[in-house]
Request: fold
Amino acid sequence: MTSLPAMLNTVRAHGLRVSTARRLVLAALLDAGEPLTAEQLAAGGDLASTYRNLETLESIGLVRHVHLGHGPGRYELSGRSAGWAACDTCGRATPLAPPALAAIQRAVREHAGYEAAFTHFPIVGRCEACRT
Amino acid sequence: MTSLPAMLNTVRAHGLRVSTARRLVLAALLDAGEPLTAEQLAAGGDLASTYRNLETLESIGLVRHVHLGHGPGRYELSGRSAGWAACDTCGRATPLAPPALAAIQRAVREHAGYEAAFTHFPIVGRCEACRT
DNA sequence: ATACTTGCAAATGATTTGCCAGTGT
DNA sequence: ACACTGGCAAATCATTTGCAAGTAT
Reply:
């Protein structure tokens, strides 16, 4: 589901309305190269409504949010990335390639007994560049 | 450094004062079996001062805080645990045994290029029990 | 017409800051 | 004495909630 019309159909399919605000949020997420904050997505409009819309769009599976270290949560289309790693030194986030993610998940499952997706809470550490 | 007097010496060694509030915070952390919130550590006393003391004690390396999923940060003595995994379903946190932690860190380093301690931001996922 | 949505104000939870009185050294 | 601390009020940041007015279907 990578097209705006398809997403709007999903919205209608859930008995929800297609409003200008929702169209704008989805369009902004579609051409964003990274997860955006609610404030960025509100873009001067009403923040509270933006949070409400993001929550609604998450509840129907179109949107997801990730906590990249400290600071506000960031939103993205739910199909966009497999999982995240974030650097707590430079603040940059790296999407994990599916094979790398799978290998890490296997290690976590085997050694800690946890099933971790790293989509909502990423791996936080120091990236290659910041290890100097 | 597992004794209260030793920690108080560290406080003095940094030119800081040993106040009742600081002694109480350190004593509480010493016999806590898990990381505690600032509110728990304030225990009816002044929350703002407690936050300030925790920050001071962190700055001299005695204390550390961890973000176990959503909710307030939690504080622990910095020597206490190697790293954490937290379950976003039941909310429980599991300290990682050093060998398990090392294996996971190796996988993260190899496959993502990140150096992750999991002491400040843990591995968040679903624990064995919650996977039903 | 009738829900569903918006916009604005106000509340909430976690944490920080300003300021002055209090206290460890 | 003097600088470091404590306590209290108020500010800040991210997010949520209440409610009356607006709009998609």
In short: Strands of chain B lie at 63-66, 74-77, 84-87, 93-95, 123-125.
